[in-house]
Amino acid sequence: MSRALLVAAFTATVSSPLGAQPAAPLAALPQPESASAALAAELRRLQQAIDALQVQLAESKRETADVQQALQALREQLEEERALLAAQVSSLEQTKVESGSKYRARLFGMALMQLVSTRGAVDNIDLPTLAVESTPGDSGGNISAAVRQSYIGIAVFGPRVRGVETSGDLRLDFFGGFPAANDGLSAPGVRLRTMQIAAEGTRLSLRAGQETPFFSPLSPSSIASSAYPAMSSSGNIWAWTPQVYLERRFERSGNTTLSVRAGVLDALTGELPAGEYSRLATAGERARMPASAVRVGARRGTAERALSAGASGYYSRQNWGFDRVVNAWALTTDWELPLSNAFRLSGEAYAGRAIGGLGGGAHSSVLFDGAPGEAASTVHPLDSLGGWAQVKVKHSPRVETNMAFGIDRSKPKAFDGFLQPPSDEAPSATRNGSGLLNVIYQLRSNLFLTAEYRRLWTRRFDGRNWLADHLNFGGAIVF
Question: What is the number of domains present in the chain?
Answer without folding.
Answer: 1
